[in-house]
Amino acid sequence: MYKFNTVRALSKSNLIEAIQQYAREEVLAKKTNSIVENKDVKLEKINKAFVSELEKQVGKEIPTTSKQEMKRYSISTDVQENFRYLRDIMVDAVLPIVASASTLNTLMDVRYADYGDSIKFTVENKALYTVTKASFKKRHAEVQKAYRTDVILSGENHKVTVMADLFDIMQGTAYIGLEVMKTAVSIEHALFADGYASLQSALTGSNIPSELTASGFSDSAFLTLKQKVQAYNGGGKVVAVGTELALSSILPSGQSLVRLMEDGDYVKNGFFSTYKGVELVPLEQVVDVDNQATYGTLFNDKQIYLVSVDSDKLIKAGIFGGTFSHENYGEDNANKESLHTIEESWEVAVVSPSICGLITLP
User: CA gyration radius for the chain?
Assistant: First the structure.
């Protein structure tokens, strides 16, 4: 798992260990449809580790004589600066953990770099050389060369502004762990939404040849696209990727009756795990942040992608650390909470020598 330089600087801190362990448990709980056991206890442990590290960074212990003095301590400039500094590092510590759990990783290659760096993706040319008949007296055939292409991502800045009250964290009435995880999950969601939007744009209209598309599902279209994707990606395993609703449309065609076993995949999961030798990989549906008022979801339920998992992934993404934040108009709100603007840099691009098949459902 990648570690940003900011995280390495505090790698021996109990705070980093505690927040990363909590993040792993949250990710595991999501995968297994379970809950994090003793969640409040673990969040309180993170709070204590955070307060201890904050005192160490500031060089001054939190006053315990009165809440008034504790409040005065919490709003002092050096304390607020270190509060943001530590929270930013905590976001850097959990972001790779959170991002690694997305089902969109089947289509996306995510890499990391530190602040000021860039990320290079080398795209191989998979076209085969043309071999022709030639006379024994001919010196050479047509000269051919397959060049590689380098794609450089340097990051685009993104911001989110949140309310924060260090005093509540110090009192134990708010959990810094929850705030860090919500921030990391929100950044991860926005990153993968950008990647998916880029893919959608790349697979529309004339951007994708008609020979790689099919309108509606049929066994013939499915196997035809599977064979093309496998052949032109140099062989290897091909999988079908789509939402659970999209994958549920993959059923044997040309038959009036399909026998489904009670304990079979289709009855248990809503779709087959494998069809015609092709593994079906579900995309976990997520919230469409821009359409939350109408309960919109992000991934298209009418599209199934056939991709080669052994080949170059279609979407390239770079996350650039570390996270930065600054305070906006401290204590300028009615409840005296501060506004903190958190900045994270990432960039996505759809560029790959691989091809994919696209089935659009009615």
Answer: 26
pLDDT in tens, 115-150: 889 999 988 888 888 898 888 888 888 888 888 888
Q: Would the pTM of this model clear 0.85, i.e. be above it?
A: yes
For the chain, percent of residues with pLDDT exceeding 90: 53
Helix axes 39-58 and 14-31, enclosed angle (nearest 10): 150
**3 state SS for the chain:** CCCCHHHHHCCCCHHHHHHHHHHHHHHHHHHCCCCCCCHHHHHHHHHHHHHHHHHHHHCCCCCCCCHHHHHHHHCCHHHHHHHHHHHHHHHHHHHHHHHCCCHHHHCEEEEEECCCCCEEEEECCCCCCCCCCCCCCCCCCCCCCCCCEEEEECCEEEEEEEEECHHHHHHCCCCHHHHHHHHHHHHHHHHHHHHHHHHHHHCCHHHCCHHHEEECCCHHHHHHHHHHHHHHCCCCCEEEEEEHHHHCCCCCCCCCCCCCCCCCHHHHHCCCCEECCEEEEEECCCECHHHHHHCCECCCCCEEEEEECCCCCCEEEEEEEEEEEEEECCCCCCCCCEEEEEEEEEEEEECCCCCCEEEECC
